[in-house]
Amino acid sequence: MATFTYTNLLTMDLGKLGTAVTDWKTMVGNLAKLKTEVSRGLVAKSEAARWEGVNATVTREFVRSTAKEFGDLHLEAESIHNVLQDAHTELSAVQKRAKQLDEEARKGGKVDPGMSVSDNGNGTVTVRALCSKKFPLYSQRSKDLEQWYADTLTGLVAHASEIDAAVSRALKNSHGGEPLNPGHAKYTSLDEDQLPRAVKLAALGGDANPRQRAELGRLWQSLSPEARAQLWKEHKKDLLAAGLLETTIKRLSPDAGSGPHGAETPGMTEVMTGAKMQLLAERADALGMTDAGRHMAHYLSNSGSPMFLPVDKMLSDDKGFQAHIEKQIRDNQNEWRKKALAEFWRNGGRPVAIPVQTGNRGYTFDREKNPNWFFAVGSTGSNVTGVVTVEPDASGKPKVGLDYQTNAWDRYNWDKGKGVDIGKIHIPDGQPSRLHTTGLAQEFSVSGSSSVKHYDLGGSTPNNGPLPKPDEPWR
Question: What DSSP character marks residue 379?
């Protein structure tokens, strides 16, 4: 079987699939009519006929068998229509998203260069920033963008391929491989194929590898709200351990950074600056700046490896950051609730679950109020990811809840013109960043997520009570 490629995704003609959906819908209607006519006509007359003997018994059984065949044909046609309709909806959304991102990447923006997008022919995509007069240098932000677009577009190719495979399995199971014996597996949507796979991946929990986590995330998006609710209720702990709430928005370096690492030769000034910063890092605990010292020490270690951000601690340490996150939830909770309730009623009052996510909102820590996080991070990107669930109470009325986490990320670097004064130690403007460009230190990425919290969004009326406080596991 040929590999499904990025070009296939962008160019596939979904109009033909849409026509097939319409044709099968017509077929379902026609077979339903025939099924009714056979049941009310032929079968009814056969059963009511006043005749006895071997011939009567054989004939009645033949009529019943014929009626069953019409019922089985209707069942199979209905399954095929449901599967194709679900596939058309899913693939249309995936293709639309891919085309939007392709155009967005190539176009670039005010602070970001245009990108070239290449199909590798094996289901993956390569994205490269294009240098120009406006963007002559290759920055960390450009590198982050390249990776995000490449990963996201490759994920969309995988998603489309997985949908195609699910459709093939469903059609095969519905047909049963017996042309003269219709009516095998019944499908109301692709859920019947995708949910078992999602359950299997969820069971891996924290042992799921990156590829399995990515597939689980795509399945979560594909499942119907009702199927998601079932999966969430039965495997919530495993889903969280598998990183289901990991943010999917762009997490970019806010600026270009200091420049290429190790592009210049260090001098005595840089060596002295490194020694001063090492002293600052070692004294950070005594100054009440544990996190700032930890990050500075990692910068000076010159490894460039990413570090984990203790987001619960950030929220607890800084009331401003806590309010910043709460505002993101407050700004969206009514819309989330409205959408979830609409799905609840659309599904006949059965439990539903919908994924939610806010956009990136930056936050800058105040140097005077919180010098620890000001020097540890400075400014951070942030958003909220979660799941809104609706379940019926004992009387059938909806209960709406939100399980959510806070995500934060940044790039630890020093602006070219920035110095630092802490206590009696003075490091002139521009010197901290030169440790990176001269290869004595290295910028790195930081990111993390908070503990998952539950918030009651209300029943028949909204709840606007206080949000839960952040965890304090270190205290």
Answer: E
